[in-house]
Structures are given as structure tokens and as C-alpha cells.
Amino acid sequence: MLWTGIQRLFTILAVLWGAATLTFVALKLIPGDPVSILSGGANVVDDAFRAQLTHEFGLDQPLWLQYLHYLGHALIGNFGQSYQYREPVIAVIFSALKQTLVLAVGALVLALALAVLNALATAGRWRYLRTFFTGLELCLLSTPVYWLGIILLSLFSFKMHWFPVMGNEGWQSLVLPIITLSLPLAAILSQILRDGLEEALSQPFALTVRTRGAGETRLRLRHGLRHATLAASTLTGTMLANVLSGSILTETVFGRAGIGKITLQAIASRDMPLVLGIVMLSALLFVIINLVVDAAYLLIDPRLRKRSS
Amino acid sequence: MSSNPLLVRTHPPVSRRGGNPWLLPKTLIPAAFVLLLIVTVIAPQWFTPLKPDDMDMDAVLSAPTLRHLFGTDSLGRDVFSRVIYGSALSLSIGLGATLIACVGGMALGLLSALAPRALRRVLVRLLDILLAFPELLLALLVIAVLGRGPTNTLIAVGLAGIASYARLLRSQVLQVKLSGYVEHSVALGESPLRIIFRHILPNTLRPLLILATLGIGQSVLTASSLSFLGLGVVPPTAEWGALLADGRDYLDVAPWISLLPATVVALSVIALTLLGRRLQTILAKGA
Amino acid sequence: MTLNSHAPSALLVVEDLQVDFLQPQGTVAAVKNISFQVNPGEIVALVGESGSGKSVTARTLVGLAGESARVTARSLSLTCHDGTRKDLLKQEAADWQKLRGREIGFVLQDALVSLDPLRTIGREVAEPMLIHKRHPRGEIPSRVEALLHQVGIPDPQNRMQQYPHELSGGLRQRALIASALAAGPQLLIADEPTTALDVTVQQRILDIFRQLAQAGHGVLLITHDLAVVAQVADRIVVMQQGEGVESGPAAQVLASPAHPYTRRLLAAIPGADTRGRWLAGESPLPDVPLTAQENDNQRRRNPFVSALDVRNVSVDFSLPNGVKHNAVNHVSLQLAWGETLGLVGESGSGKTTLGKVVLALQKAQHGEVWLAGNPWSRLREAERRPVRGRIQTITQDPLGSFDPQYTVEQIIQQPLKLRGKLSSSALRARTLELVNLVGLNVDLLKRRPQALSGGQRQRVSIAQALASNPEILVCDEPVSALDVTTQAQVLDLLIALQRKLGLAMLFISHDLGVVQHMSHRIAVMKAGQIVETGSTEEILGSPKHPYTQTLLASVIAA
Predict the structure, then answer these.
(1) Range of the domain at B86
(2) Does the pLDDT of residue C495 top 50, yes or no?
(3) Is there a domain that residue C56 lies in?
(4) Which of A104, A245, A269, C121 could form a disulfide with B134 if both were Cys (CB 3.0 to 4.6 A apart)?
(5) Which chain B positions have a beta carbon within 8 Å of A145's beta carbon?
(6) Does C502 lie in the same domain as C448?
(7) Same domain flag for C261 and C388
């Protein structure tokens, strides 16, 4: 058990290190004047000022030393200052993160609820209903997230004025974005849950349960769902990735403040410290989520635990 | 797992009906649509007499009419023509990006499955790291380095997709490598090279190629998302995502500028995906 | 609900049962006509090969034949605890749920997949009690414990908290039986309950069924294994292609079968007494004589050198949790030219691993293998590859050794294409020669093996193995997955081929009867070691090692 714990830790560090290296490499690859890049694109002509900035950014040191410094700073969470906001990158990210988290968590919860209901209801029965939902899921996955957002916006905001068009105030402004973000997530989850459920229902043990006199509901809820959850937990990486990218798009459509907005602005204005901070953030998030999922996996599937006999 | 939702299901659905699968409506309809799209790419002028950049200042923000099937935008340009010409760009970016992702993924995947142990470990870690990022974010990163524009968008989406294909190919190769028939081929006396080229590659590439057809749809989506965010193809060039971005500011007065192109995007991706899935099912049964 | 002229105590009455499946391509008649009866206190065995409809019959009796099934019968009735007779043709879904588990218990094969792997044994056994609300909640744990004890599981209190994968195969199966009995049914239906188990374990499971019958339960045992039947059945019903062809008291049916199919079935069972005769009745190759006379003139090679010489081989595996497992422990044996050495052992004995070492597909940590007097295992693969044609293999699952894309023709030609350029006419000629040799229909060449039957696939596998003119054939459980009659044909083919081509065979199997029939000499393997070797007559007549004696005791001469 201890050994796997150490291996896990090692993997986390490897991923984080890899992300940091990746961003460092990306930074060095950007064509153009490095001083200008790090100060947000300004054209620094004054030599004295340039020398000062060069020293400040550590550009006068050998490359490997810069790399180590970068790693060291990253370790303690210091990504430098965002040029646009003139604040530490960490601070900028965290304040935006709060907004996005509300949206993301809300969407995930809704997606989960929808997916579970859908899978339970349609797995293995009622051919037409199932085909309908499968088709709906396919549509949801194939349409751009922003299209959904736009449709919902024009319908519910512009035409019917139920919800505000833009902005962050109050729960009303959250409804449409959460729905928009949750639908594609629900689509993926439904597919995998349903596949997992149907797979479980066709196993021999399902037959055994039926021979005991169990009804379909009992079979699905008490037996099938666990197996389906196992199948779905391999998906968490995908889910997280989609939540992140979906948030960026949804926030843009609905004009909300959050990680999405600052990411775009950061890239558009070449605010590299901020961009890099965001990249590291998503790596960290991924790693944490994976840890949680692995632990959950152990809880659900006893075959993975150490033999006690 | 990949962050590409369309590539997540690697098991094709099981079909029960009889009849020639190539001729069923559920194969023919998406195939016909895809064919239509291909024609649009090759010969856009067949579909519309107007040019995408022609401005008609008398008909600004006008609703759909017979002359302007999708209406006009804020600069009087015919939205329909922009969609048609934009399809060429969007689809080629999607195709090109998928090619890059496939080829890169194949190389990385094969190496990480067949290389000597030390190299393998490193590559698998590398894959894990790459997969930690959503494709969109990776693409954004590449754009940040390279800048905007259609070629860069293609490269960005392509590079971002490599990890997914690599991971898929790697698990396929491992599955084949550990399978009974590879060991049996050794017992028959076949050389390693022969085994790789006659058994491993054909049995792994086929599923990969089928998945790539699904992937084209996703690449188109990612590319258009980039353009929508203003970081892919920039106006005035006609590209699907860019068109939607254009229209976002006019949603309350002229929703058709965004809605209709978006519908075309959606239908195209659906058609591509459906076709890919049908291929999966048909070829799985024959195998 | 009709009361007919059967003994009033009959638990289950089946008369002229017919089950059809409505498919889009047409109607399939899975069960055409079967009649039998199960009384309390007796074990009725329903015997048949694959496609006989026995499993469909079993599932129909609990209403689980499937949605597309159409069930008709002159009578299909069950006597319940309250004395009433329920007409099983008229039960609705809700009625079935009351019957299943409470009036009829069902046991499937292989508890590893027939029990929910994510739930503890205790919860699985308790489920029928909860469904049928038989006992107050508080009593359930103690009742589960009592049940586990009844089926012979030691330390039931701890075992209850464990998961199926943590128990051995035998204990798992007992738990499965316990869960079928939990709601107290009087009728028990068991579908191949011992198939996934080792021979020695099978004995003990069958004992449980015997005890249950003695306690007053009625047991319907579905099986293809006549050895099982001979041990416990009171009555036998034989099914062939959906029809009941013979039924009667077990002793009578086994000793003097009336129907030709039953006779064929019994004649096809390999054992010590079938040595020297064709199991399927006649020689599969016309030019190989019907006599028991051996063909010694095939020994054109150096008789002083063995075909295979295994010298003190040991194989270790390191398991994922770091522990070392000793799969093969200092094994030595020799295979002479033209003879069959039978390697018999249960699962986990290391016999498959040894087979792989002989084929040089597995490295041995210690010891060597010599082939025809030359080094074999110590060669580098590049040196060994050209010689591999001398030793080939067939396995239990031929489909697993074929490239999924290949047709039968491509499979057979796979070895032919390695030996330098053959002209296409020479290739074709040799392919036809091989196809005729193994008794395959030429039309099958363009088909895929997935579309072939088990017996046909094994013939393709043999044809492929013979393509390079081997002198030694390693057969690893080649007939374990086949029906008795198909098995008989394949075994006959192997013997005929040996006589015609002078093959030396290493025949690996867990089935002592098959090994006795096929082998000139036998080696018994247990836990990685050879415990006894000798000629077949010696092993049969005077087995020395206790393990050999146990194995022999579990093989019944039919």
C-alpha cells in the first residue's frame, strides 16, 4: 500500500514537472523579443530600461539556471506578475476560479443527475426511447458548445426575457450557462453509463440475480449501477477536460467573468505569466481529480484491494 | 482516456438487422451529406453565385430571402456564401489537423508500445502529461506561441490531438501484442519484422483509421471553437467559427447570422460522426 | 392448472415442451419435444451436447428463456410449498418473481462470473431472503452463516465478509449454491455447476447435491459431462437437437442404452478401456488401418536420441504484488519418436507453462530443453527460427491463435509462405493436401474461422500445424472446449495422423480419461512437479503416488 502511495506521489510530481517544463519550453519558443514578451508586448527601446528588465526577468542568466529558477518559483506558486492586471498571477487566477467553480460544479451535478436518470431508464429496454436518447446525445456531442449557448440565449434571454443576457449577478445569470455546459457533459456520461449498465446486465451474475426473483429495478439499482460507475470513472479525465474547455466557451458566450475570460485575454494580449499559470493550474486540477477518482475506484471495486485472506 | 468525447467509445454498437449494411439509410444519408460537403470544398462556386467578401451596403443585416438564403451580416455580406466558402476552410483544417494528430499519434503510440523498456517508460509518462490538458487548452497554448491564422490553427489543433491517438494506438498495440496469435506466430517461426507488418500493424491501424473519421468532426469543432474565441482564423476570412463570433454581437437583432451557420456546423459534424460510427459497426462485423 | 395422472408427489412435470425463438431471419426451434419429471429426493440429469436445447429448457423453467421465446407444452407445472400446482405456462412477470428463488433455485456454472464480483458473499446469499421477506432483518446474518455452514464452507462468519474473487473455485461454487437455497426452494436447477472446476473439487460439489436430494430436495442437473451424471443421477434424460431421445433410470441408461445417439455418446467417451479403438466408430483417414496394431516403420530416425529432452527445467514468475511464484519446479522428461506422452494435471499445476517452455515461447530460469539431440532452449531466437518447423502446437482455443483478419486458406498457408517462394500452384496443391488430410471441406477455405464450428476450427489449427511437416506436436488441451462427439472425432484424427506421419506428441490435458486413451506414457504433474511417470498400463494398474490415485478415483469407466 505504501509503495503504491509513493508511486502515486511520483506520478503527480512527474505530471506537474512535465507541465512546468512544457510551459517553459513554450515560453522560450515564442518568436520575438523575450523582454517584450514578458512585459506584455511593449516595445522597449530604452537601453537602460531594457537592461533593468532583462535582469529583472532573469534573462541574463544561462538557460538551465533560468529553468531551475522557473521551476523553483512554480513550486511555491509564484508565477510572476500578470502584465495586464499588475497583480500576482496567483491572485488573478484564484479570483477568477471562484466564478468558474460555481459554474463548473453546478454543471457537473446537473450532468450527473441527468445521465444517471437517462442510463437507468433506457439501458436495455424500450428500443425507440433508447434510440431517441442515443441520437440526442450524438447531436449534443457534435454541436459546438457555443451553439447551444447561443440558442438558449436567443430563445430564453432575447425572446422571452426570462434570464439576463450577460453578467454575473444573482442565480438567474447562472441558469443558462449551467444548462449549456451540462448538456454535452450529460451526453458523454449517459453514453458511458448506459454502455456500462447494459454490459453489466448481460453478465451471468445478472441472470443469477433474476433467478432469485429480483425485479429489474433492484437489479439495476443495487447491482448494475455500481458496475456502470466503474466504467464511468475511467472518464473523469475527459470530463474534466471538457468542463475546462466548455467553461471557456460558455463564459465567452454569456459574457461571464471567470477563468475562460482571463485565459482568452491573456492569450490575446500575450500575457505569458498568466497563460503559464493557467496551464499549471489545469495540470494540478487534473492530478487532484485523478487521485480522488483512484481512491473512489478502490472503494467501489473490491477486486483492486489487497487480498486479506 | 482522451479528452476527445467522440473518441471515448472505442467499442462499436452491435447491430442486429439483416440486409447489406452499406445500403441502409443510416449509412447512405450521412454518406450523402459528407459527399455534399466534399463537393462544397472542391467547387464552392456551384452553390452560390455570390462571393463571400462582396459587400452589398443596401442590404445590411437583412433577414433570409431567396437571394440571400441565410440573410446578410453587418457589412452586407451574404451569409450563405460565407458559410459555403467557409466550409472549405473549416473542413480542410479539420482534415489536416486530424492527419497531423493521426500520424504523430501513430509514431508516438507505436514507440511507446514497442520500444525498449527504458524509452517506453519515459514515453508513457509523457503521454500522461499531455493527456492532462484539454485539447482546447493545448491548442490555445500552441496559438499563443505561433500566433493566429488558418495554418497555425491547423497545426495547433493537430498537435493538441496527438496525445489522444497515441494513447489509443498504444492500447491497441498492447492488446494485439499480448494476444494469442502474436505468440502463435512466433511458434510458427515468423520473424519479428514480419509479425509487426503482417499482424500488428494491420490489426491496429484499422480501428485507428475508423476512429480518425470520428476525429475529423471533433477537429472541426475544436478549430471552429478557436476561431469563435478570436484565436483561430480571424475575420474577414470566412470560417465557421469566425462567422459565429461575428454574429454574436447581433443576436438580438439578427440571430440568423449565428444560428444558421452554427446549424450547418452541427449537421456536418453529426454527419461525419454518424458515418464514422457506421464504418465502425460495418467493419467490426466483417472482421 | 391441471392435475394429471402423475404421482401426486411430483415436484416438476414437463410434458411435450416446445420452445421456439422468433428471429428476424425466421423461427428457430430450440426445443422440439421433451418430457420428464422431477420428484422430491431424486436427481434427474438432463444430458446433451451443445445445441441440444438443455440450457434453453432450464431457463424456460424459470421463465428466463428470453423475450423472443415462444413456449408451448401439454403440461408444465410446479408443485409449490403450499401444495398448489402452478401452471408455468400462465405465469406473468410479477408471478415469476414470486416463484423464482422461493419455489425454484437456480445454480449456474462458474461462480466467479455468476456472483456479483462487487458484492460480498454474505450479501449475495442474503439477497433471496430479502427479496422474499422470509425472515426478519435481524435474523438474516445468522441464517446466512447457517447456510454457508450447510454447504460446507469453513469459517462462515469471516467468509461472509469476503468477495467472490477471494475464495477458491470450490468454495465459490458452494456459496453460489447457498444463495440458490436461501429462500428455501424445494426444486433446484443446476446448469453445468461443475464445469469450471478441477476434477477433485467437482467430487465435493456433487456430494452437496447428493446431500440435498437426501434431504428431500428435487434436483434437475443439466450437464454434458457423463462422468458427473454417472456419479449422482438417479434418472437420466438424453437430449439431441431439441428432442428427448431417451430417458430412464441412470444405471440402466448407462449400462444398456437403447437409442443410437446415446450409444454413440457413450462410445465416444475416452478412457483406459477405449485404447486401440476409434471413438467415433471408424478411421478418419482411409489408409490408416482399423487395427490396434502400431506402425513401427515410421521410426526412421535415431532411436537412441529422444525427440524431446527436458532437463531439470524450472520457471519462476513474479506476480504483480512482488511475490515469486514457482510455476515449474525441476521437471525432467523425455519424449520418444512417434510416441504420445500424456501430461496430466489440474489447473495451476504448471503443465501449460511447461508446454510453452518446450515450444521455446517461455524462458526457463533453470534447465534446458533439447530437440532431436540438439540444443534447443539455449539457442538465440534467430538461430532457432528456421528450425521451428520441426515442432508445432495446437491449443484449446484455436480462434485465439489465428489472426482475426485471416481466412481459413490464409491461416493454413501461413507456415507455407515462410519456407521460401512457392509457386502459386504448388501452394494450392499443398493446401488442398492438408485440407484433405484433416477432413475439412474444401468450401471452407474462403470462410473466416469465426464462422466455423469448434470442431472445424480445431481441424484448421491441425492443418496449419502440419503444414511445415513437423516431427513433434505439442497439444495443449486441444479438446477441452469440444462436445463429446466432436472431441471423439478430433482425437481419432490425431491418432490417425500420428500413425500415418509418425508424429511424436506431447499431449497436455486435465482430463485423465482423454490422456489414458491417447498416450503411450503418462506423466502426472502437481504444483509444478512431476509426481509420477510411467507407461499407461503401469499408471492405470499400479499408481504409486497418492495424487495419481486420487485422480484415477475420479474417472469413472462408463
Answers:
(1) 33-286
(2) yes
(3) yes
(4) A245
(5) 225
(6) yes
(7) no
Residue with cell 500415418: C500
Same domain, C343 and C432: yes
Task: Flag residues of chain B having pLDDT under 50.
Answer: 1-3, 10, 12, 287
Q: Which of A142, A180, A235 to mutate to test binding with chain B, by most B CBs within 10 Å of its CB? A: A142
The average confidence (pLDDT) of chain C is 88
Contact B2, B131 (CB under 8 A): yes
Count of structural domains within chain C: 2
Residues C246 and C389 in one domain: no
C91-125 per-position pLDDT tens digit: 888 899 999 999 999 999 888 899 999 899 999 99
- Based on the domain organization, do C404 and C489 belong to the same domain? yes
Total domains in chain B come to 1
| pLDDT (0 to 100) of residue C17 | 93
Contacts of A273 in chain B (CB under 8 A): none
Say if the Cβ atoms of B225 and A144 lie within 8 Å: yes
Tell me, yes or no, if C319 comes closer than 8 A to chain A by beta carbon. no
Strand partners, C223: C47
Are residues C296 and C238 part of one domain?
Answer: no
Instruction: Quote the cell numbers at residue A43.
Output: 516595445
Decide: helix, strand or coil at residue C184: coil
Whether B258 is covered by a domain: the verdict is yes
In a domain, residue B11? The reply is: no
| CATH label of the domain that carries residue B264 | 1.10.3720.10
Q: Which residues on neighbouring strands pair with residue C328, listed in sequence order?
A: C315
Q: Report yes or no on C139 lying in a domain.
A: no
Residue corresponding to grid cell 457506421: B278
From chain B, pick out residues whose CB is under 8 angstroms from the CB of A147: 244, 262-263, 265-266
What is the average pLDDT score of chain A? 77
Q: What is the pLDDT of residues A118-149, one digit of tens each?
A: 888 887 676 777 888 888 887 787 777 777 77
**Residue C199 C-alpha, separation from nearest chain B C-alpha, in angstroms:** 26
Contact B229 A192 (CB under 8 A): no
SS3 B110: helix
Q: What is the mean pLDDT of residues C48-60?
A: 90
pLDDT at C2 over 90: no
For A233, the enclosing helix (H) or strand (E) is: helix A225-233
CA-based torsion, B217, B220, B222, B225: positive or negative: negative
Instruction: Tell me whether residues A302 and C118 touch, CB distance under 8 A.
Output: yes
Residue B69 placed within a domain: yes
Determine the distance in angstroms separating the CA of C455 from the nearest CA of chain A, rounded to an integer: 26
- Could you report the per-residue pLDDT of C188-240, keeping only the tens digit for each? 999 999 887 888 888 889 999 999 999 999 999 999 888 788 888 999 999 99
C-alpha cell recorded at residue B124: 508513457
Distance CA C307, CA C370 (A): 8
Q: What is the pLDDT of residue B286?
A: 52
Q: Which of B159, B141, B143 is nearest to B99 (CA)?
A: B159
Q: What range defines the domain where residue C471 resides?
A: 292-301+339-349+383-554
Q: Which of B129, B251, B252 sits opposite A15 (nearest CB)?
A: B129
CB atoms within 10 A of CB B172: 22
Same-domain check for residues C413 and C502: yes
Give the tens place of pLDDT for each residue, A57-80.
667 777 777 777 777 776 666 666
In a domain, C18, yes or no: yes
* Alpha carbon separation from C195 to C107, C111, C177, C198, C555 (Å, rounded): 12, 11, 14, 8, 15
Question: The domain spanning residue C465 has which CATH number?
Answer: 3.40.50.300
C417 and C467 co-located in one domain = yes
Residue in chain C nearest B191 by alpha carbon: C385
Tell me the shortest Cα–Cα distance from C153 to chain A, in angstroms. Answer: 15
Report the residue from A144, A191, A237 with minimal CB separation from B131.
A237
Residue B15 lies in a domain: no
Partner-chain contact B188 C415, CB within 8 Å? yes
> Is pLDDT above 80 for A54?
no
Chains contacting B with at least 3 CB pairs below 8 Å? A, C
Written as one string, the DSSP assignment of C21-41 is EEETTEEEEEEEEEEEEE-TT
Please indicate, yes or no, if residue C543 is contained in any of the structural domains: yes
Share of residues in chain A with pLDDT > 70 (%)? 77
CB-based contact A282 B133, cutoff 8 Å? yes
